[in-house]
Amino acid sequence: MRSLRIAAAALLAILLAPNAPRAAEQRLPAMNDDAARRYFTDVQLVNQNGDTMRLYSDLIEGRVVIINSFFTSCNGSCPVMAAAFAEIQKHLGDRLGKDVYLISISVDPTTDTPARLKEYASRFQARPGWYFLTGTKANVDLALRKLGQFVEDPSGHFSIFIIGNQRTGLWKKAFGLAKPGELIPIVDSVVNDKG
Amino acid sequence: MRVPFFVVCASLSLATAAYSSGPSPLDARGKEIYMRGTGAITATLDGGVTRIAASTLPCVNCHGRDGRGRAEGGATPSDITFASLRRAYAVRTPSGRTHGPYDDRKLKRAIVRGIDASNNVLDPVMPRYSMSDHDLDALLGYMKHLGRELDPGVSEKSIRLGVILPPQTTMSGASAETRAVVRAWFDDVNERGGVFGREIELAFIDPDGTPKERADAVRSFLDRSSVFALVCSFTEGAERELSAVAEELQIPFVATITSNPRSSIAPGRYVRELFAGLAEQSRALIRLAGREQPESKRIAIIASNIRLTDVRDAAVQESRDNGYGAVDLLDAASVDAAKLRDAGVTTILILDPQPLAALLPAMQGSDWKPVLLVPASIAGPDLLAGAPATSLISFPTLPNDYSETSIGTHARLIREHHIGTTHRATQAAALASAALVTDALTRAGRDLSREALLDAIDRTKAFRSGFAPPLTFRADRHLGSTGCYIIAFAPGQPPKPAWVEIE
Fold first, then answer.
1. A161: closest CA among A128, A191, A122?
2. pLDDT score, position B415
3. Considering only CA atoms, which of B143, B150, B130 is closest in space to residue B57?
4. So what's the pLDDT on residue A157?
5. CA B203/CA B351 separation, integer angstroms
């Protein structure tokens, strides 16, 4: 099965590549083990509470994740995407923090300290299970590269949500500035996916 | 129907009068809503239920101070200036909707329910705002001035710029020469007709005392005199405090000069700085020294000043990135040459000159010859050129940055305005700032606003002032020059210069 697992990681890399279509989906052969861990790595990030989190083991493994990138000093699209996350959070109810995580990764980790992220999170009434992540620039850059969200200049960030079900291997991308009413069915299709 | 000419003239003059009479108290509340979204106002997305404080999503974020809107992150906000919304014909928005003219009722409906003047649903990026009728009236009132209200310090005939000079008490010569040369430069600009017909007026201040006292003096100066932007200003020793005033008052603080800029560590929305400072120079020095040193290397960083903590942290990170196995942090009082030698220190970054008095003699006649890394503003070649070991000295700018034209201009200004010549380098830095500001004001256009000036600065690519290295700014780069010259002084060898770019 080794070759299949590597192939799965390659497919994931293609889906997450920055130049992949912004609305796309990919079903991957289940890769709930070493292949995914090797692809994402356990690079260490820091959440809004100052806790260290490993990208694969603490955030992605065995869960559904909805991921975007942003920065707190962005005045344009980032607060709108965060508002959409707040709507998704509301829709998820008590599944958030159990088998579904919302993950917002800063593209400006030098400025976005955990304290700054905590203040930002409170503006959107973020509940446990919605993680705002920063860390050393090298670590955050690696995580963003793995997710196809790395940009040199924070203001060039993507407005894309990556929605993935690690258990079933279903990964989708959606335009983060779409209406919540259009985003929620996409989220549901991944959350409720049975493989 | 023909309209008599005098009626047209009368209407025009009435419109002008309404505009120049300035906003009413209700409009002031409207401006507060537009700019900050304060008060009991909430925003929700189309079809959403989560209410978010409008202060997180105020109108200005997307539509800009002038109401024209700037594309960002896949969103293309509409032009919401009064003239654009009231156009009597169908308007096509950047997202492809077509709508007719708005009246007040339709505009309120757009803000509250997200429906445009022709009953289309607005782009989902535009939130729906819930606010009192009073606030809605206030916001509409202010929106009628959008793009027509002149920023403080600008009139049809003039632009008033503030200049913070070096402190008169401690640097009287540099202060007087800077004042004279900046005045001479803008006199020249005014003689050529100003900028879009507007004369440049200057208001000087030379605050002294503690950083807080200097900041307080500048705050009260700005409260007193209506200034469009602070330019050609020296912030040395009070960078944080003075920048905080500019951020608080939302006044562009452009092309400031200091050896310790904060822009690459904690960039401000309104602050743009000119040259690489101690952080950038330290990193460049470490990078260059790291390339030329053997595998096993150990660096000692000597910094005592609490204001240099960020610089020290940047130096530590750069040392690790360049393969220094061990990094020793010392303050001046704890420097012991024998201990450093025994620990095998190969490189010393000097951010406090005081220990040099003991270090240099200790290296004389010893086989311990660590490379000394020194920004010129800490200790210059006069102190280090004869050192018993290699020293690398960094300079954010050198006279070879001056162009022939600029040397001629500077000489003429000195001659015509009888300016002293003791502080030529300080004058050159002020002129680099003045040249950049003049260029940016011109590129900002006739519809000048503080936002347009900052935009123009951020669109500056490799600007050659003739007095400084090429200057480049971007939305995420608020320091014009991020590299520095490093001159290596090695015993018995001619000085060797190099340019090291950090970004």
1. A191
2. 97
3. B130
4. 82
5. 34
Q: At A99, phi and psi to the nearest 5?
A: -105, 0
Residue B150 has phi, psi (to 5 degrees) of -80, 140
The CA angle B251-B253-B254, to the nearest 5 degrees, is 130
Mean pLDDT score of chain B: 89
Superfamily of domain B158-276+401-472: Response regulator (3.40.50.2300)
The answer to whether residue B35 neighbours chain A at the CB level (below 8 Å) is no
> How far is CA A12 from its chain centroid?
14
How many CB contacts within 8 angstroms connect chain A with chain B?
A: 91
pLDDT band of residue A14 (cuts 50, 70, 90) is: low
Give the C-alpha separation, A194 to A64, whole Å. 12
Neighbours of B339 (CB within 10 A): 13
- A158 has pLDDT over 80: yes
Q: What is the pTM of this model?
A: 0.66
Separation of alpha carbons B263 and B278, rounded Å? 12
B362 touches chain A (CB under 8 A): no
Q: Are B121 and B47 in contact (CB under 8 A)?
A: no
Q: Residue B307: is it exposed, middle or buried by C-beta count within 10 angstroms (0-12/13-18/19+)?
A: middle
What does the pLDDT look like over B65-99, one tens digit per residue? Answer: 888 887 777 778 889 999 889 888 888 877 778 88
Alpha-carbon gap: A90 to the closest alpha carbon of chain B (Å): 8
Tens of pLDDT along B108-125?
Answer: 999 999 999 999 999 889
Question: Which CA distances in Å does A172 have to A21, A107, B264?
Answer: 10, 21, 36
What residue ranges do the domains of chain B occupy?
A: 2-143, 158-276+401-472, 279-395+485-500
Comparing B19-28, B58-67, B288-297, B322-331, which segment has the lowest mean pLDDT? B19-28
Whole-number pLDDT of residue B462: 95
- Of A53-62, B180-189, B381-390, the poorest mean pLDDT is in B381-390
Map tokens 């260490």 to a residue.
Answer: A44
Q: Which residues of B touch A153 (CB under 8 A)?
A: 474-476
The CATH code that applies to domain B279-395+485-500 is: 3.40.50.2300
End-to-end CA, chain A: 18
ipTM (interface predicted TM): 0.82
Q: What is the distance between the alpha carbons of residues A96 and A64, in angstroms, rounded to a whole number?
A: 10
* β-strand pairing of A44-47 with B52-53: unpaired
Q: Where are the alpha helices (DSSP H) in A26-156?
A: 34-40, 77-92, 114-123, 137-146
CB nearest B474 (choices: A75, A111, A153)? A153
Instruction: Report in angstroms the alpha-carbon separations of B102 from B80, B81, B119, B181.
Output: 10, 11, 11, 52
Question: Can you say how many angstroms the Cα of residue B482 is from the centroid of all Cα atoms in its chain?
Answer: 13
The three-state DSSP-derived secondary structure of B381-434 is HHHHCCCCCCEEEEECCCHHHCCHHHHHHHHHHHHHCCCCCCCHHHHHHHHHHH
| Cα–Cα dist A66/A101, whole Å | 6
> Is B122 an interface residue toward A (CB < 8 Å)?
no
Looking at CA atoms only, how far is residue B127 from chain A in angstroms?
A: 8
Do the first three CATH levels of B158-276+401-472 and B279-395+485-500 match, i.e. the same topology? yes
